[in-house]
Design a protein that fits this description.
Elements lengths: L16 E2 L6 H4 L7 H12 L2 E4 L7 H14 L3 E6 H6 L4 H6 L9 H21 L5 E6 L17 H7 L4 E8 L1 H14 L12 H17 L14 H11 L4 E7 L4 E2 L17 H14 L3 H9 L5
Parallel strand pairs: 1-7, 2-4, 2-5, 3-4, 5-6
Helix pairs in contact: 2-3, 6-11, 6-12, 9-10
Length: 310
């Protein structure tokens, strides 16, 4: 295993870059307790009841979720996990696929809405049963492209919105530097073939597509990024856009500017945290709700294409 840590000044200065992973004691303690990032995660675990880890594909969200869960449990918290990639797969069953077929590495918009409806009801149910002193809900929500975006849009149910808008709910967004983003893209190209039929996380082409979407949103919000070809990654643009999207929530940017190489033997273990997901009957019920509310692709697409208007 090869790894390197070099902490410099700013309070969030660890970078995760990985292709393969060995589940070992070292993995369980990737963040030294002396590191600023560890302190930030620990402080968040102490003060929060609901923590959302968000951001673009390939910025280490899975690793942060694993480390945060371990830190929170070390503080005596009972952690419940919901991960986008696990939760949405529960809706990828033949009956729903007939209505909302998967594209080339892209989740159908109808399925995104199904999963979002399930998420909001699941969060509300968890909040109604939680022990505020012990329980913590940890959610991986990419947000981009309407992936669990419901969490950061004001909710009609006042009791739910009061929690999501309060300081007990925190949204952590890893923001890699340009150098690290280049490394992440290279690793993802080595990890996932564009013609792969099964995969974990976004394919390289999807990562680039989503970044271009972010740049287009930034332009709508006042920036002037040239959109010919593939716009280069810019962490300032990334933070700018997410600060606007998260204007109704408590946003904690994690600036990632150092390289941390880890050898991984089975990346699926990163997602093996007992994440909640819908059973088949429940998934079909949410599909029925979505089909009734949005009877055609045009109505689905209109909602999903404006995901960032929170």
């Amino acid at each position: 295993m090869i790894y390197s840590l070099d902490f410099i000044g700013f309070s969030h200065s660890i970078i995760f870059s990985f292709i393969h992973f060995i589940m070992s004691d070292l993995y369980q303690n990737l963040l030294p307790p002396t590191s600023p990032t560890y302190h930030t995660l620990q402080k968040t675990a102490q003060s929060s009841q609901l923590v959302i880890i968000s951001g673009l594909p390939g910025v280490g969200k899975s690793l942060y979720i694993n480390q945060f869960k371990r830190i929170a449990e070390g503080l005596g918290k009972q952690v419940t996990v919901i991960q986008w990639d696990i939760a949405r797969k529960a809706f990828e069953i033949p009956t729903i696929a007939a209505q909302y077929p998967m594209g080339d590495g892209v989740v159908h918009n109808g399925l995104k809405i199904c999963a979002g409806k399930w998420l909001i009801d699941t969060v509300q149910d968890w909040l109604s049963k939680r022990d505020a002193n012990k329980d913590l809900l940890l959610i991986e929500a990419p947000l981009v492209g309407h992936r669990f975006i419901e969490l950061v849009k004001p909710q009609h149910k006042a009791d739910l919105e009061s929690v999501l808008a309060s300081e007990v709910c925190q949204v952590l967004v890893p923001i890699p530097s340009k150098q690290v983003r280049a490394k992440i893209e290279a690793d993802r190209r080595a990890q996932i073939a564009e013609d792969a039929q099964s995969w974990t996380g976004a394919k390289p082409s999807v990562m680039l597509m989503l970044w271009k979407q972010i740049c287009g949103i930034a332009n709508e919000l006042g920036k002037a990024i040239p959109m010919e070809g593939q716009p280069p990654y810019d962490p300032e643009i990334y933070e700018f856009v997410f600060s606007k999207i998260l204007k109704h929530r408590h946003f904690i940017p994690l600036h990632i500017d150092e390289i941390f190489d880890v050898t991984i033997s089975d990346e699926n273990e990163l997602h093996n945290l007992g994440s909640l997901f819908a059973d088949e009957h429940t998934a079909l019920q949410y599909c029925k709700q979505t089909t009734t509310e949005y009877p055609n692709d045009e109505s689905l697409n209109a909602l999903v294409n404006s995901w960032y208007l929170t």
